[in-house]
Amino acid sequence: MRLQDRTSWTEPGDIDAAVADVRSTTHGLEQPSDLDRLVEQFGDRTYVLLGEASHGTSEYYRWRARLTARLVQEKDFSFVAVEGDWTNCYEVNRYVKGLSVSPETIRDALEAFERWPTWMWANWEALEFLDWLELHNQRLPEDDRIGFYGLDVYSLFESMDAVVDYLEDVDPDAAAEARAAYRCFEPYGEDAQEYARALRMVPETCEDEVVEMLTRLREQVAAYDHSRDDYFNAEQNALVAKNAEQYYREMVRGEVDSWNIRDRHMVETLERLQKHHGSDSKGIVWAHNTHIGDARATDMEARGRLNVGQLVREHEGRADVALIGMGSHQGTVIAADSWGARLEEMTVPPAQEGSYEHVFEQAGGGDCFLVTGELPDDSPLTRPRGHRAIGVVYHPAHEAGNYVPTVLPERYDAFMYFDETSALHPLDVHADVEAIPDLYPWGF
Known about the structure:
This protein has helices at 14-25, 36-42, 58-75, 86-97, 106-111, 124-138, 156-170, 172-182, 192-201, 207-220, 228-251, 255-276, 289-292, 308-316, 356-363, 408-411, and strands at 27-28, 47-50, 79-82, 147-150, 283-286, 321-335, 344-348, 368-371, 385-388, 403-406, 414-421. The chain is α/β, with parallel strands linked by helices. The chain has one domain. Strands 1, 2, 3, 4, 5, 6, 7, 8 and 11 form a nine-stranded mixed sheet that branches. Strands 9-10 form a two-stranded antiparallel ribbon. A hairpin with an 8-residue loop joins strand 6 (321-335) and strand 7. It comes from Haloplanus aerogenes. This is Erythromycin esterase family protein.
C-alpha cells in the first residue's frame, strides 16, 4: 500500500478495528507516575528523541519536560539537545551549568532568543524546565552537570561572531585572520537570507572562507590555552558557520537539499555532543515530529528527504534509540499565518476522519500513550494513515495539507496522545507567571 494513498484511511471497518487496538494496547497518561513504563522501557537507550506535533502546544512541552527530568534523574542522561540555534542555546547552557559569564537569570537567557519564531523557546513551559535543570545541576559535581544545547544550523552570522570572540582571547592574530575571512559576508548585512538571494544573481560564494576557518581552528587546538568547553563551543560555532553557509547556498537550488543539510547537521552535532560528554554518555533530543519520526515510515522518503530519527537509527541501531512522537485531536496552538508574522493563538479543529489522531479520539480513553512494539503484527494501526503536523506557519482552514502519510509503528517506538491541548505561553505575551495557568504536570 502506497503511503500517499489516503483512501486506505477510511476503508469499511478499518476505523473500528483500529479503535479496538488502541483500547486494548494503550496506557493512560494522567499523572507523572504514568510515565514509569516509558522510563523503564527506554531509559537504557543511548538516545531518546522526543517529538511534538507543533511548536506551540503547552502539553507537548510540559510532558516532554517531565519525561526528560525522569530520564535525567533516574537513568543518568548527560545532555538535552533541541531544535534551536547553537549560539542562543549555549547561553542557556551556561546558565543551567553555572559556567562563567552566564546570564543572570534564565528569563534573561530566553528573552535573548531573537530569531523568529521567538515563542519556540521564550516561553514559560521551557523556563520552568530550565529552572529545574539549573537547580538539579547545583547538586552535581561540575563535570557531571547536564547540558542544554541547540542542534540547528541557522545562526550563520552569530556563530562567526562567536568564533572571532573566542580567538580574541586565545590567539589575537588568528582572530584578525578570522575577521578577514568572514569579511566575505559583509555585503549581506548579517542577513543570511540576503546572502542566499544574492547567489541567484552572482554565484560567488563564501564557502572556501568558512571551511578554511574550521580547518584552521582544528589544526591549532593543541596550541591554545583554554577550557575544554570553551574550545568545543568555538569549534561548534565554526562548524555551524560552515554548514549554515552550505544550507543557505542550497536554498537557492532546491528545498529538499537544504532540508537534508539541516538534519544531517543536527545529527553531526548530536554525535559531537555525545563524544564530548564521554563514551558512556546518553542524550535526549527535543524536536518536531517531522525531524524525530523515522522519515522512511512517511512519504518524506519518496520526496528525497531524510531526517534525524532515520539517521540516528541508521548510525546507532534501533536497539539503542527511542523515537517518541506526540499528537492531539483538537485544541489551541500558538502559530502565525505567514513566515515572520505576529504570533496568534489559533484553534486546532478536530482531527481528520481516518487519521491516527481521529482513531485515538474515537477510542475514548483520553490522554494516553502507545508503545508501538506492543501492537499485534496484523493491527490496522500498522497500515498507512494520516498523522497531523502543525508548523510555525499554520492555516486551520486548510487542514487537509497538514497530514503526513505515516506508518506509526515504524515511525515511532512510542506515541503520546492528548485529546485536547492548549496553546503555549510565550514570555512576551504572558509577562507575569502569576497570570498564567499552573503548568502541571511539570512541577515537582
